Amino acid sequence: MAEEKTAKKAKPEKPPEPEELPFEQFINEHYLPSLAKALAEDGLSDLQLQFDNGQVRGKWLGNQRQFTVYFAIPDIGGQKAFSCADRGFEPATIEPFMVDERKTTLDLLVFYVQQRLNGQKWLAPN
Questions:
Q1: Which residues, in sequence order, are CB contacts of 65 under 8 Å at separation 6+?
Q2: How many domains does one find in the chain?
Q3: How far apart are alpha carbons 102 and 93 in whole angstroms?
Q4: Global pTM?
Q5: CA 36 to CA 33: how far, in whole Å?
Q6: Domain ranges, residue 113
Q7: Could you give the CA distance from residue 17 to residue 45 in angstroms, rounded to a whole number?
Q8: Domain assignment present for 88
Q9: Are 120 and 114 a contacting pair, CB within 8 Å?
Q10: What is the DSSP secondary structure assignment for residue 84, as one 8-state letter?
Q11: 27 assigned to some structural domain
Q12: How many CA atoms are closer than 13 Å to the CA of 43, on its beta-carbon side?
């Protein structure tokens, strides 16, 4: 009888937040799909995203435009950098990415990529 009461009172375990998952699982299961969805809503219909060697790369317009989010270590809270390039060229500059954020979340990682691409005037007309 005591066992039944204990079982009834036990709350189901809350699933971990996406940011608490192992790095590669977070990137593949949450970040790439969320980023693809957000950028599709911004008008990038032929976006190709891939994750390899600590880098998230996006290409569209027949590979004419591209961006890369670099993760220095396999941790979303670690140092990150960003680059972008147009007309099929390789990036000329790699810039710090999200350096002022105390906490890195899925939504912020997506937002900052959108912000950088919008700054290039590559998303919806400004």
A1: 59, 84, 85, 86, 122
A2: 1
A3: 24
A4: 0.85
A5: 5
A6: 45-121
A7: 29
A8: yes
A9: no
A10: E
A11: no
A12: 8
What are the C-alpha distances in Å from 78 to residues 10, 97, 110? 36, 10, 16
Give the bridge partners for 95, in sequence order.
82
Question: What is the Cα–Cα distance from 13 to 5, expressed in whole angstroms?
Answer: 17
Q: Is 21 exposed, middle or buried (0-12, 13-18, 19+ CB in 10 A)?
A: middle
**What per-residue confidence (pLDDT) applies to 125?**
62
Residue 92 maps to a domain:
yes
What's the count of helices (H) and strands (E) in the chain, helices before strands? 4, 5
User: Which are the contacts of 81, defined by CB distance < 8 A and separation ≥ 6?
Assistant: 69, 70, 72, 94, 95, 96, 97
pLDDT in tens, 64-123: 999 999 999 999 999 999 999 999 888 889 999 999 888 999 999 999 999 999 999 998
Tell me, yes or no, whether 6 lies in a domain: no
Q: Which residue has the tokens 């009461």?
A: 5
CB-hemisphere CA count at 13 Å for 61?
A: 11
- 120, two tokens: 């290039």
Extract the tokens encoding 44: 């990038």
